[in-house]
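S1.2 Input.
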Amino acid sequence: MNYHFPGVGCAYSAACRPGFYPYFRKALENLQHKNVLKIGVLTFHRCINYGSYWQARCLAEGLQARGHEAVILDHDSKRVNLVEWKCAFQPVLPTPVPASDRPLYREKIRKFFRVFDTLPLSPRFPLEDPSQMENYDVVVVGSDEVWNLSHPWYGCCPLFYGDGLKTQHLISYAASFGNYDASWGMHPFWADKLRNFESISVRDANSQTIIKDALGFEPEMVLDPCLQFPIIPEDRDHELLQKPYIAVYGHNFSESFAREIRQYADSRNLPLISFGYRNDFADEQWITTDPHDFAHFMAKAEAVATNFFHGCVFALRNAKPFVCESSPYRRHKLQGLMAKIGGEHHLLPEGSDYAQYETLLSTPLNPQITQKIQQLRQTSNAYLDRALALKQVQYA
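S1.3 Output.
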């Protein structure tokens, strides 16, 4: 059996990843004590989105560190590609994209294409014809919005509900229904497909309720892979990273949110740097960036202002002061995350007064939140131990 570990035998070399060797050594030790499973991770891994990239990579590498042969299932669809790329060229809609930004978004897309090739990928197969995929001992579906029946281009895709997957065992890790509201219910057609999963875990309360109402049991709540597993980006030495700044991650913020963030930055004489998208209230726009830039950008910021789920995740991961403005599309994800770690006060509704912004952005992250995340890492690990141990009985 061939073992794949991130950064070994590929352009994404271990030499350029500080802290990788202990991670690799742990994986080798695990190989001596565990039966090795061939695992396929099924997720949204080719989205032009920093969080999607890292959650896919983190989950695959987290499974590899357990000693398994884990790859990301490289499904491909011309239909999905066209709508994904179209969205990436105009990501801030309904705000118009100025003509001057189009080359910048084009370069950003090209950089994503390059880093996609560094992921631990399976042989490619058509999204609509999984019969062409390889066989796997286990397929792990998740995280991301893999079960979002209203997703604009992946919604109602049977593959993510297990149809046609060439595997003996199905489990989920941190699966989400995204903006699909629990009050809408789930049709028995889709619920019956989820009954084929031997272990189910989700990452937010809305998804937990949907599963409970449809299948009659409460699935486990686990951490997003970006909070659960190591993130080791390639080295970067950008000039913008060498000075103090406040990170702005997201787009289409309300006028009141932008105004209060602007006021706070001015009061501290700190520049606002908008990453990945244009926000005209920021001092600088850094659009042409890849996921490794993003990881460094969030890690080195003095504070974070965001309206994205993974903006909060990376702020939490790096213990940064942050504020988040919720949006209808991301409401369930954001509220679920904050309720899980006790960070609800970081979600500021439109019209919140300046004092709340100032307190949250100038105060170190509450240690109780960090402690809660550590506790959830333990319970999330325990879930994976149980889910994968059930499969290993077959090879004992």
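S1.4 Remarks. Residues 1-24, 392-396 have pLDDT under 50 and may be disordered.
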